[in-house]
């Protein structure tokens, strides 16, 4: 299928003029890698920004809407559980589907469906027939479509960008995704809820429609050509799981991210109770809570631009080790102080660590995974990495209910710091050896 040294360029439709492949070979046999990331990438970049702006609005709108129906930590945390549960239930089928269909059309379909879901939710809230159970149902459906969208979006990138430009491309994607999802979206969501809860859900629907329009401008075919006899979904899923679990480096990173996401989800599932309202420890208003969350986005934006430099100057292994204490501050600082300024500073520093980690590990995963397995390996990885999020949200709600919210923050911060132990055994040689395995195994 694809050359081990680079991704397979997408096949354009008959009526389209093909764009240059990610890398070209001259007469001497050397590979020339263009500096440009290509028009298709930048269109996906714009679409991703619009989609993540919608996600950012919902990140604040859903828990704030839940506060209108309950003040129970467990029930409020249930929104995060419903949003993350599809990563446990639907991630693997979504990955198999992303390897069977055109990945661009999978992204289009996912955005159309979740746009329709939030419109129904907005209508229910406008007619005053909303309930916490309606929020749970909407969050679950949004999370389900998100599994397909995110898996397809990560899987399509190596079809557009040469492997030597993946870190740069991922850095640019994280810049727009995190800026819109965490910097612009949360305060916008808080402001919209203050005006009208229904408006806070109509807006994401409009943004997803706009994202679909931009995706339709992307030229090319992004369906992987499958070889061999036809197989069923179950066999496809098993093949992706086997590849991930047999690759020691991918397996290790998936488990580590799962631990980190468990801790982060536990803390942020109850963050709204700690931060919002005159009787809360932080005493913030709803719009101010949205602004607080943008501190993470500021750090994430910085991280997206320094990640490539960190790889080059510090090396990947040392950079990953340094990321852990940085993103642990996300949950440790609220456990130590209720000062909005200090919590915001912890969020900012944590955002840098999260994004540098993501750019390095996602780029590595895209390099070592064969094109025909990309969707299934990405979904299996995210099942391990993201499937812990609803479990973390449940744990956070229960700990807060019986021991208090500060205990959640402190215990989860300590849990995140334990990741330093396995990372201490990784060096540049370990990472390089892990990347070489794709050449030894060949491609599918």
Structure explained in plain terms:
- This protein is mainly α and 444 residues long.
- It has one domain (37-218, 230-441): MFS general substrate transporter like domains (Growth Hormone, Chain: A), CATH 1.20.1250.20.
- It contains 19 helices and two strands.
- The chain has helices at residues 39-66, 73-84, 86-89, 91-98, 103-126, 132-156, 166-195, 197-215, 233-246, 248-269, 271-275, 286-313, 316-336, 340-368, 374-386, 388-403, 405-417, 420-423, 428-441, and strands at 24-25, 31-32.
- A two-stranded antiparallel ribbon has the order 1-2.
- Helix 7 packs antiparallel against helix 8 (197-215) and helix 10 packs across helix 15 (374-386).
- Mean pLDDT is 85; it is low at 1-34 and 439-444.
How many DSSP H or I helices?
19
pLDDT averaged residue by residue: 85
State the CATH class: Mainly Alpha
Q: Tell me, briefly, the overall form.
A: globular
Fourth-tier CATH superfamily name: MFS general substrate transporter like domains
Kindly estimate the percentage of residues that lie in beta strands according to DSSP.
Answer: under 5%
By CATH, the topology is Growth Hormone, Chain: A
CATH architectural name? Up-down Bundle
**Sheet having the most strands:** 2 strands, antiparallel
Topology order in helix (H) and strand (E) letters = EEHHHHHHHHHHHHHHHHHHH
DSSP helix fraction: over 70%
Query: Which stretches are low in confidence, meaning pLDDT under 50 for 5 or more residues running?
Result: 1-34, 439-444
Q: What distance separates the N and C termini?
A: 6 Å
Rg calc: 21 Å
Largest sheet strand order = 1-2
Number of strands: 2
* Total tally of structural domains: 1
By secondary-structure content and strand pairing, the structural class works out as mainly alpha
């Amino acid at each position: 299928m694809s050359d081990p040294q680079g991704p397979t360029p997408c096949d354009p439709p008959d009526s389209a003029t093909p764009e240059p492949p990610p890398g070209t070979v001259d007469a001497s046999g050397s590979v020339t890698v263009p500096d440009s990331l290509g028009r298709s990438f930048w269109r996906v970049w714009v679409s991703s920004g619009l989609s993540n702006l919608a996600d950012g609005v919902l990140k604040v709108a859903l828990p704030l809407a839940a506060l209108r129906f309950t003040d129970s930590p467990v029930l409020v945390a249930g929104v995060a559980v419903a949003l993350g549960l599809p990563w446990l239930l639907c991630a693997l089928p979504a990955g198999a589907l992303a390897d069977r269909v055109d990945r661009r059309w999978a992204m289009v379909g996912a955005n159309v469906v979740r746009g329709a879901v939030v419109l129904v939710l907005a209508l229910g809230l406008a007619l005053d027939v909303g309930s916490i159970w309606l929020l749970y149902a909407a969050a679950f459906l949004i999370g389900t479509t998100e599994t397909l969208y995110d898996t397809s979006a990560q899987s399509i990138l190596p079809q557009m960008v040469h492997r030597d430009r993946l870190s740069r491309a991922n850095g640019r994607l994280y810049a727009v995704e995190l800026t819109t999802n965490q910097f612009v979206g949360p305060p916008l969501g808080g402001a919209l809820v203050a005006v009208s809860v229904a408006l806070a859900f109509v807006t994401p629907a409009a943004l997803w429609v706009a994202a679909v329009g931009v995706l339709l401008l992307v030229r090319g075919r992004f369906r992987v050509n499958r070889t061999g006899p036809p197989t069923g979904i179950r066999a496809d899923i098993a093949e992706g799981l086997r590849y991930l679990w047999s690759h020691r480096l991918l397996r290790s990173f998936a488990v580590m991210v799962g631990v980190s996401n468990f801790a982060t989800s536990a803390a942020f599932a109850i963050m709204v109770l700690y931060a919002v309202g005159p009787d809360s420890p932080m005493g913030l208003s709803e719009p101010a809570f949205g602004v607080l969350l943008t501190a993470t986005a500021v750090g994430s934006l910085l991280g997206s631009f320094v990640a490539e430099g960190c790889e080059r100057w510090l090396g990947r292994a040392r950079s990953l080790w340094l990321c852990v204490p940085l993103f642990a501050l996300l949950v440790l600082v609220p456990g130590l102080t209720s000062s909005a300024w200090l919590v915001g500073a912890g969020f900012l520093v944590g955002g840098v660590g999260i994004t540098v980690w993501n750019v390095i590990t996602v780029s590595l995963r895209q390099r070592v995974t064969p094109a025909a397995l990309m969707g299934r390996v990405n979904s299996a990885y995210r099942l391990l990495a993201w499937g812990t999020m609803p479990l973390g949200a449940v744990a956070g709600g229960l700990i807060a209910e019986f021991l208090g919210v500060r205990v959640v923050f402190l215990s989860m911060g300590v849990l995140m710091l334990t990741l330093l132990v396995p990372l201490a055994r990784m060096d540049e040689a370990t990472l390089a050896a892990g990347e070489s395995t794709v050449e030894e195994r060949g491609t599918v």
